[in-house]
Amino acid sequence: MPAICYDCLMKSATFEERRKRAGRIVAYLKKAYPKPKTELHYKTPMQLLAAVMLSAQTTDKQVNKVTETLYKKYKSVGDFAHANPKAFEKEISSVSFFRNKAKAIIESAKKIEKDFGGKIPRTVPELVTLPGVAYKTANVVLGELYDSWEGIPTDTHVKRFAKRFDLTDNEDLTKISKDLEALVPKKDWKFVNNGFVLHGRYVCPARPHSDCVTHPLTKLWPEAAKRWPKTR
User: Fold this and answer.
1) pLDDT value at residue 163
2) Which of 11, 51, 91, 186 could potentially form a cystine with 40 if both were Cys, beta carbons 3.0 to 4.6 Å apart?
3) 45-146: what fold?
4) How do the residues of the chain divide into helix, strand and coil, expressed in percent and rounded to 5?
């Protein structure tokens, strides 16, 4: 008789518990936030890509404040590709890491112009070839522009709730995305990032608060009210 792998059984039990918990959470997110839509302002596909890149470690509110003026000047891929680097840096200087972001946005626009016929790529493997574009950014852009959900984007909000609801043991954003993708059916991937982001912004902020126990998601798994993991 073969030996019993108790470690395997434990992992399997944990996965199944997490899968069921994730199912209840996503069911709520689908009802509360049924139409995934970024709060970043844009009018052209390149403006969206630039806005998502600018939003790294910066609030959408601050990005929208910057792009309100910026996007009067920069609209097309060509506008960004041929921007003056120093001028562009100055124009986005109120966001974090503005020098690196300016360089990445301009270089990405140049690559899109040269390698993709001036069109924003439609797959994750293509998008992540762009400077400054990783898994999260690629999936936000694909979902918003093309309603294509090849993965679950993980930002600070998604990481925070994935840890609070014990849906992952990882810290790396892409690994957390993969954990969530394993727990949630692909047809529901589109609701995860958008739902957690909006829930985090408007219902359950990151700082510890006593009324968390009354929040709809917390009621689904009350243990979350005791968990305040650091996500940075």
Assistant:
1) 95
2) 51
3) Endonuclease III; domain 1 (1.10.340)
4) 65, 0, 35
